[in-house]
Write a structure and sequence with these properties.
By secondary structure, this protein is of the alpha/beta class. It is built from 14 helices and twelve strands. It folds into two domains: 110 residues, no CATH class; 307 residues, Rossmann fold, CATH 3.40.50.
Amino acid sequence: MPPLPDVDFNRWGHGVSLLGGWFPLTVEIVTVVVLIAAVGWRTRRWRLLWLPLAIAIGVVTALAARTYLNSEGLAGDPAPLRLWIWTAGCAASIAVALFGFRGAHWLRRGLSVLAIPLTMVCALLVLDQWVGYYPSLQRAWGDLIAGPLPDQIDAEGLAALRNTHQDTGKLVGVDIPDGGSRFSHRREWVYLPPAWFAGPVAPQLPAVMMIAGEFSNPTNWIRTGNAIPVVDAYAKDHGGEAPVLVFPDSSGSFNNDTECVDGPRGNAAQHLTDEVRPYVVAHFGTSTAPADWGVVGWSMGGTCAIDLAVMHPDLFATFEDIGGDRGPNSGTKQQTIDRLYGGDAAAWDAFDPRTVMARHGPYTGVAGYFDDSQEPPDDKTRNLPDRPQQRAAPVGFGGHDDANEFREKGALPDLCAAATAVDVGCTLRVYPGYHTWQFAARAFSDGFGWLAGRVHVPAPGPAPM
């Protein structure tokens, strides 16, 4: 495995942390004070009727939200209790404002209204701490206002940089036609390493497709997954050589969970294989060889990664599945068939990685890296250790009789075993930790040297002057 330099992972959280520290704690303390002041002692009728009713509304809302989350199969790790407490608090604060508005003093009215966004922010902060979506306030704000990405340039500026030395790669936004798939998508992004600019014409570099998880946008791997510093650091130590990174839109909108399949939620698979890959080859001169193309995915994107590779070994020979499921998942198997495939059970088989591998038979030249996370039994924190626990061989975990088989622990070891059985190379790492973006970023950094070697990054040329 080519060496990979250390990357400063503090760069994700540069600024005011949303994952811990003074800011989330301060917001929660202020919210509790405001909520208590908004509720007040008031009248006997208020204490015996309206306040208990508001609390009941909050509890019912939290239970309904929890039931919905479980039915949709949206989470691998159980949601923290604090998330449901603040969800209940948000619903209850709305009820308090409505029930007590008429008879309240103007100050209490104002506090009642203020408590609603504050409790909502507290719930969102806990949600963010659960999944690690935004490590800092600055990152969240940059995404909210669609601020510029690191080293972002316009496509029109690429020609001016031809035949120049660049210390870092460049990010360019692309609008890829979707006439074949009719998959409505947002702007997608391509990272070009320094070597792409070094000569009079673009070299035929390898490429890696980077797919985010559910509730995502194409910039997640850039803003939250720390992908660009990892690749820039690699290129710096390898004469500017690194793969082209492609950041496609696999969902079309923030809350559209396609699982990278073709179905009622959109022809995401067709868009990725028939439109994104050919566009990158045609416009950026990347290699066309499947051995020079890889797919990396986190959570839902991890499932996409193995699916794309085993379904299309003529397009992708390498994949890294970080925290993915056993297959495309939208609840139980029947719920998945109904939601993702419009009730077509044959389509479920066509996109199920284990079924696809068993039907295909032995593969040649395809290999994958699986990164799994398991909560330490004696660890009460959500901090990811620096080093993974290495596991030399795949380990199977039980059967598949649970109501939602895809969210069982051991999905990746099972996939690794199935891959090994059909000659797909398999490396499995298990991290003690949680299903968060910080785990995904660490896993990508740790595995990038292997990935670069697999997709045949050219040997570095002479050091630039």
